[in-house]
Amino acid sequence: MSDNNTASDRERRNESRLKILELANMTSVPMALNAVVRLNVPNTMAHHSAPISAADLLRLTPAADPDNLQRLLRLLASHGVFAEHLSDGGLRKYSLTDVGRTLVSDESGLSYAEYVLQHHQEAVVRAWPLLDSAVADPSEEPFVRANGMPAYAFYGENPEMNELMQRAMAGVSVPFMKAFLEIYHCFDGVRRIVDVGGSSGDCLRMILEKHRGITEAVNFDLPEVVAKAPNIDGVTHVGGDMFKAIPHGDAIFMKWVLTTWTDDECKTIMKKCYEALPKEGKLIACEPVLPHESDDSPRTRALLAADIFVMAIYRTKGKHRTEEDFRQLGISTGFSSFRAIYIDHFFTVLEFIK
């Protein structure tokens, strides 16, 4: 009995040490992902119907090092981004998995690749070693401590970063919006819709193409944002401040807006939405929603990890929230009813009725 307990204890300690080593080296995973995107590996791989070796992936750049690329591919294969195919002679070849295909550009040139790149820019990465300061003194974001100004202001002064951020959001938005429009059918009676934080107006364009009964659409964002927005049939671009006033509409749509603000700021935004809606008008907010209990599922881990990204980069007290948190925000700002519609593993549709 004692020997068995000793062996069991030894194995448990070994597993614990191994887990800590994995976690301590976890930075290698997103950095490897960032590297293969910068090297255009997913798009190159997508043009080959059969598995391909690292050397063949780099055949147009002879000075590059296929051995080092293979090391990146092996790591990412262990996380399901690529599939590894090992021949009898020991040659390793790789192909895309469904996960890897999210990094392949679509017909519009969009994918999740820009999301990967946006998260690992130098200014963003500089904030991470200061994450403990978000706990010790939450009055200032780690990004601000590292770069001297808030993230959105920093993007505004760096056009390349801002463009990448916009493309990253578009790459994430398009597949979500397709799922949203397939499942959400509650635009009956809506004639005028306002997208708060609508950026270039892409979400409104997709909504209008699906719901012909909507005759007016307002893309509402900061003046400097809508000034660069393209002309879209049926869409009026309006600049302003959502903390002061929001254009009126039968329905107000927003996506990933509330996440980056504190509870009090969210209440202000939602109150302005309430004031802009008629009786029985609706606020449709698409946000990440945390489960009530923590677990080790990929969904929970993705949501919790993205929550820490918000803490580090945007607002120390901005956060992902549970369904009940959103329900209470709705009650506190006057909305009479609320429901959550789970149509996507990351974003949830939150419907607040006035």
TrEMBL record:
<dbReference type="InterPro" id="IPR012967">
    <property type="entry name" value="COMT_dimerisation"/>
</dbReference>
<dbReference type="InterPro" id="IPR029063">
    <property type="entry name" value="SAM-dependent_MTases_sf"/>
</dbReference>
<dbReference type="InterPro" id="IPR036388">
    <property type="entry name" value="WH-like_DNA-bd_sf"/>
</dbReference>
<keyword id="KW-0489">Methyltransferase</keyword>
<protein>
    <recommendedName>
        <fullName>O-methyltransferase</fullName>
    </recommendedName>
</protein>
<feature type="domain" description="O-methyltransferase dimerisation">
    <location>
        <begin position="21"/>
        <end position="105"/>
    </location>
</feature>
<feature type="domain" description="O-methyltransferase C-terminal">
    <location>
        <begin position="128"/>
        <end position="336"/>
    </location>
</feature>
<dbReference type="Pfam" id="PF08100">
    <property type="entry name" value="Dimerisation"/>
</dbReference>
<keyword id="KW-0808">Transferase</keyword>
<keyword id="KW-0949">S-adenosyl-L-methionine</keyword>
<dbReference type="InterPro" id="IPR036390">
    <property type="entry name" value="WH_DNA-bd_sf"/>
</dbReference>
<dbReference type="GO" id="GO:0008171">
    <property type="term" value="F:O-methyltransferase activity"/>
</dbReference>
<dbReference type="Pfam" id="PF00891">
    <property type="entry name" value="Methyltransf_2"/>
</dbReference>
<dbReference type="GO" id="GO:0046983">
    <property type="term" value="F:protein dimerization activity"/>
</dbReference>
<dbReference type="InterPro" id="IPR016461">
    <property type="entry name" value="COMT-like"/>
</dbReference>
<dbReference type="GO" id="GO:0032259">
    <property type="term" value="P:methylation"/>
</dbReference>
<dbReference type="InterPro" id="IPR001077">
    <property type="entry name" value="COMT_C"/>
</dbReference>
